[in-house]
Amino acid sequence: MNLSTPTVAVSGSQNLSLGCWTHELSPSGSHDSNSSCKAVLVILCVSLSQHRRFDYRPKTDPYCQARYTFCPTGSAIPVMREEDVIEVYRLQAPVWEFKYGDLLGHLKIMHDAVGFKSSLTGKNYTMEWYELFQLGNCTFPHLRPGMDAPFWCNQGAACFYEGIDDAHWKANGTLVLVTTISGTMFNEMAQWVKYDNETGIYYETWTVQASPDKKSTVWFDSYECSKFILRTYQKLADLGAVFKKIQTNYTSVILFSGEPIYLGNETSIFGPQGNKTLAAAIRDFYNPFKPHQSVREFFVDLFKIIDHVILKHQFYLFYNLEYWFLPMKSPYLKIVYEEVPLPVGSKASFGV
Question: What's the family (predicted)?
Fold first, then answer.
């Protein structure tokens, strides 16, 4: 099973149902029932989705280019002997640690992975899930000349390779034993990883919540490296792994919004019969997030972003191949580093 490149997928999804009503949206994206120029009547008889699983993974477009090659040393997941005893390690380090050291670690912006060590062979391995074309491409689209719709390079995938870079994980992060499993459990986990990798294919940076309160409604959940590690830990627990009682924290980038408003998909908004006013508003919103060529250009666009998100309370989210309007509210955005406990399984424990 080779996870160095994306593979083909199977279906399955979960939905959280919302109520059903109509809502009018003015061309600027603000909400004004008395406006004489209505851009779109949005019928919110929809479901606010959790991250969707897809039937297949589409080929990546040659336009999408990675500055750093995805999974350059990736290899197939080996089949372990049933009697093997395998140590499982929690791995965490600051994002882009290889380039900026602990800079982002001070902001608790962390990347997560999982490590394995075989007692029979002495070999160790690393497994992680991340963007094919870097974080910026997964968070914001390209506005290409001659194309009406924003163009996304937002696939993510699992990467498995031999070796654990101790220096990388230990220097500014974490490398700690969390459980031990059998070779049988490892092989079952590997089959699950193949399914997970083939069906969950789009990276999602943002978590969207109603408020900073811990019991707040989560409108949209992120789908990034830490979520893959949490799913992997849960799968191992379900297979019988018993985790150590240690604190484990993860990074989330949260947007705060009132109830999201469904807008449509690429065809319904940007297609021949689409809404040109709404399409222009979405393109206008994403334009300031483009790569910048000068300091002056950066600050001009930064002001536009502040104007959209904070002053006008607007954010357009692309999630599960659909567009949503987020009526933003204070504190607008927050990076949190919160504890998510290690899981408890549903099967009899495997003793080592």
Answer: Belongs to the CLN5 family.
| Structural domain contains residue 9 | no
203 occurs within a structural domain? yes
- The whole domain housing 254 covers 15-339
55 is a domain residue? yes
Residues 138, 153, 225, 308: which is the catalytic one? 225
Q: What is the pLDDT of residues 123-169, one digit of tens each?
A: 999 999 999 998 989 999 999 999 999 999 999 999 999 999 999 89
Question: Of all helices (H) and strands (E), which one includes residue 184?
Answer: helix 183-199
Measured N-to-C along each axis, helices 225-238 and 183-199 cross at an angle, to the nearest 10 degrees, of 140
The count of residues in the chain is 352
Number of domains observed in the structure of the chain: 1
**71, 111, 153, 313: which one is catalytic?**
111
| Whole-angstrom Cα Rg for the chain | 22
- Write the CB contacts of 141 (distance below 8 Å, at least 6 apart in sequence): 150, 151, 152, 153, 154, 286, 318
Told to judge if 64 belongs to the known catalytic residues of this protein, a careful annotator would answer no
Q: How confident is the model over 185-200, as a mean pLDDT?
A: 96
* pLDDT score of 26 more than 50: no
DSSP letter assigned to residue 50: P
State yes or no: is 20 an active-site residue.
no
